[in-house]
């Protein structure tokens, strides 16, 4: 079954997409294009903040989910083709279970060294995914700023504080002048608005957090590198035949049932099935990619 080429393409395409997103956000940050997105009022500000944070978190969660899924499957399947010790295969599979499991497996290398650099690469990759889940919500925030508006009563003969008005936001270059060049006074803090005046409105604008962005960009690059290290490039196994769809417990049980030599050797080497003893007992070479080859230890 040729699996490696399409899966490798999907894996590295997703990593390139992650890097590309951060590069695009860097361009936005350098020119502050995000400042053009503004909101006035508490309700609009809250809605803008929630929309941006929830939206970015959803995109990051879905993207990293597929990143880990594809990279993990590609790495484990490739290891089924490699001739290595049974303990090394066990450690690599355990390291992919999660960040905590990868740290524990890396710690276990101090007693029985199987594939320390490979386990380290998986640990760094899992840690990078964890960091992305922290930096993504911190990428965007909403900051207040003062906006100048020209306030004009609809009917200037109507007095009272409840008079209806029209507010027209002025740009920074408009200064405090109307269309005919007449300067307008500041709006009163209280009381009726009897004529055109200038009011300072507190609004909010979208802002990119440069610190979180640079961390995310660095982590996305590291993820790309360590994805390549744990899968060894694109299409390297595309010409090989593999009888396993996925490297799971059921598949391993089936393989062991068809290759009693592995079970026999493991039982003969281990009396006490503790973690350390099992890891030491599994220090003999196997190749799990094909039942005809598994028995050739």
List keywords for this structure.
297 residues; 6 strands; 55% helix; 2 domains; 10 helices; two-stranded antiparallel ribbon; transmembrane; single chain; rod-shaped; 4-stranded antiparallel beta sheet; alpha+beta
Write a concise synopsis of the structure shown.
The protein contains ten helices and six strands; from the N terminus they run αβαβαααβββααααβα. It is α+β, with helices and mostly antiparallel strands and 297 residues long.
Low-confidence stretches: 156-163, 170-181, 233-241
Helix-strand sequence: HEHEHHHEEEHHHHEH
Distance between the termini: 23 Å
Main sheet specs: 4 strands, antiparallel
The fraction of residues in strands falls at 5-15%
């Amino acid at each position: 079954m040729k699996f490696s080429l399409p899966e490798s393409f999907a894996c590295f395409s997703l990593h390139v997409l992650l890097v590309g997103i951060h590069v695009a956000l860097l361009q936005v940050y350098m020119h502050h294009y995000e400042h053009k997105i503004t909101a006035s009022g508490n309700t609009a500000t809250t809605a803008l903040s929630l929309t941006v944070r929830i939206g970015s978190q959803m995109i990051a969660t879905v993207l990293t989910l597929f990143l880990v899924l594809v990279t993990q499957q590609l790495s484990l399947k490739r290891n089924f083709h490699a001739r290595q010790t049974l303990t090394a295969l066990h450690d690599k599979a355990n390291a992919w279970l999660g960040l905590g499991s990868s740290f524990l497996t890396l710690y276990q290398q101090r007693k029985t060294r199987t594939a320390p650099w490979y386990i380290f690469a998986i640990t760094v990759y899992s840690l990078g995914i964890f960091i992305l889940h922290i930096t993504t919500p911190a990428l965007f925030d909403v900051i207040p700023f003062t906006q100048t508006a020209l306030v004009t009563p609809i009917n200037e003969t109507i007095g009272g504080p409840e008079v209806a008005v029209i507010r027209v936001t002025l740009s920074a270059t408009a200064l405090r002048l109307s269309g005919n060049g007449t300067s307008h006074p500041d709006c009163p803090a209280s009381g009726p608005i009897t004529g055109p005046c200038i009011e300072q409105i507190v609004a909010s604008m979208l802002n990119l957090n440069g610190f979180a962005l640079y961390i995310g960009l660095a982590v996305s690059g590291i993820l790309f590198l360590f994805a390549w290290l744990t899968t060894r490039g694109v299409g390297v196994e595309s010409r090989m035949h593999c009888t396993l769809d996925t490297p799971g417990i059921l598949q391993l049980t089936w393989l062991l049932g068809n290759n009693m030599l592995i079970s026999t050797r493991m039982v003969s080497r281990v009396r006490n099935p503790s973690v350390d003893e099992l890891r030491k007992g599994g220090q003999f070479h196997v190749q799990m990619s094909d039942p005809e080859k598994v028995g050739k230890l």
